[in-house]
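FAQ: What does the model actually see?

It sees only this:
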Amino acid sequence: MSYQFDFSFLADKWPAFVDGALLTIRLTVVSILLGFALGTACAVARVYGHPLLRRLVGAYVEVIRNTPLLVQIFIVYFGIATIGLKLDAETSAVIALVINVGAYTTEIMRAGIESIPRTQIEAADCLGLRRLQVILHIVLLPAMERVYPALSSQFVLLMLASSITSQISAEELTAIANVVQSDTYRSFEVYIVVAIVYLLLSLLYRVGFWLVGLALFVRRRRLGTAL
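And it is asked to produce this:
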């Protein structure tokens, strides 16, 4: 049995793939920024917060990390609608992705925070720095530098996982691919194209995170190892 590849559909459908890729980028960039902020705040709360707050953050992390992302997306998209708050697919996708990546970021940043030597923090206290100054300047930036490769990998995985949002009709790359293959009946070719686009996006994100690492971390900039 022979199979004839036919990519002629790209002549007409490539703008749709571009639009889908751009939406994937928008969804994930916003989710990464908000998820990092949420995860960092939760990590600080889990290390330095009140015992009750630590338990609440711990419960959030365990619930999110032990349930499927697809279920979380459905809860946000369909569940919130049942209480009278109707959100569009893109907004629901961002909320679900932020909640999801925030939980993973919490644990990654917590590991970085706990890796900071206690003596370093005590030295900052002896210099008269306020608690907020210690956390921001002595703890968070060095902690982020130590776990930056893990953070970068997690954020790339988030971009790949965003394909699940096609299940709630968010018109990102995978959703566009589903529409195109239903129109052209060239499933094999369509998903080969999508796989290549995701690979290129992954490389783009990794280069972007490498450049951000060079900008943020002086020591890594000197060594040329931003990731």
